[in-house]
Structure formats: C-alpha cells, structure tokens
C-alpha cells in the first residue's frame, strides 16, 4: 500500500472503505481456525455450523464487494461467483448440519473442496504479490485434498482448515488495520 488514497487501486479503495467488515471477518476466521487447531474432533456438525456461518458471511461480503467493483475491475465477476457459491453452500450446510456430520459428510466435503479450490484461485488472482497470497495457495491445495479424498483423515483435514482459516484471518486483520490508516 502506498502513502495516499490516490496511490491505491480502486479495488483497495473499496476495501479501505469497508475496513471494519474486513476486521470482523478476520477476527471470526481466526477464532474458527484456532478452535479447529485446538480441538478438531469437536464434532463435524458443530464444525459445519461454524463454517456455514463463516461461509455465509464471506459469501455476502464477496457479493457486495463484487457488485461495488464492477465498474473498476474486470475481475468483479469472480467475487460475485465466489459469493454465490458460498451463500448456496452455507444454506445447504445450515439446513442439514447433522447430515454434514453423519450421512452427507462426503458430499458436503466435496462441495467445500470446490469452494476452497475456486476461492484459492480467485483470491490468488486478486492478491498476486500482496498479503494473503499464502492463504490463497493453502485454500487451493486444501480444495484439491478435499476433492481427492473427502473422508481421509478428517482430523488432519480439519487442522489444515484451521491453519488456512488462521492464516486468512490474520491476513485480513492486518489488511484491515492498513486500510484504516487511509480512512
């Protein structure tokens, strides 16, 4: 980030105006990541509800940001696509949290893998060389892992999700405070 608002690209100006939302998302994501690192076996249904809330919040935020930047960035549709997928996935998980933990875990983990894969690709396109690139790569790799073996070592997968969430949350908190300086 440069020293003045005029030095920022329009995407960062839009995010700068929404630094409080970015901070709240970062704190929430970091808390979820910490819980998953400490106690990943706390139950898939509980984890499903927590992640569905995160996914819903992130999806709504992506939709708002995507539609706001449609005149300033040709990749605006990526945020809208990601937001739409996340809102749909959150609705499915919230409506069947026990199913996620029992019968539908495999199918929903595959859907979650798709979201992580798409999110990792889109986030990487937006963040090349910026804070958060590492979390984009982790999301992409986690998406591949979930698609390749949805029930393989759920404990390890949940810990990896925790690492990705903690990394992404920390990056969002850091960026929120950077954006706050300009507003």
TrEMBL record:
Bilayer-crossing regions: 21-38, 44-67, 79-97, 103-122, 134-150, 156-174
Protein known as: Uncharacterized membrane protein HdeD (DUF308 family)
GO cellular component: plasma membrane
Pfam families: DUF308 (PF03729)
Organism name: Spirochaeta isovalerica
InterPro entries membership: Acid_resist_chaperone_HdeD (IPR052712), DUF308_memb (IPR005325)
The keyword Metal-binding is assigned to this record: no
Keywords: Membrane, Transmembrane, Transmembrane helix
């Amino acid at each position: 980030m440069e020293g003045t608002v005029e030095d920022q690209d329009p995407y960062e100006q839009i995010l700068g105006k929404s630094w409080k939302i970015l901070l709240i998302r970062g704190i929430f994501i970091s808390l979820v990541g910490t819980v998953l690192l400490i106690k990943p076996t706390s139950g898939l249904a509980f984890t499903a509800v927590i992640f569905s809330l995160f996914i819903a919040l992130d999806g709504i935020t992506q939709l708002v940001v995507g539609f706001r930047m449609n005149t300033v960035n040709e990749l605006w549709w990526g945020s809208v696509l990601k937001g739409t997928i996340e809102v749909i996935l959150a609705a499915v998980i919230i409506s069947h949290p026990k199913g996620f933990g029992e019968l539908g875990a495999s199918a929903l983990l595959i859907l979650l893998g798709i979201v992580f894969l798409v999110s990792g690709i889109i986030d990487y396109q937006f963040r090349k060389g910026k804070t958060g690139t590492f979390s984009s790569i982790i999301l992409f790799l986690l998406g591949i892992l979930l698609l390749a073996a949805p029930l393989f070592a759920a404990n390890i997968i949940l810990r990896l999700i925790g690492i990705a969430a903690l990394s992404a949350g920390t990056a969002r908190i850091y960026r929120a405070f950077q954006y706050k300086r300009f507003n």
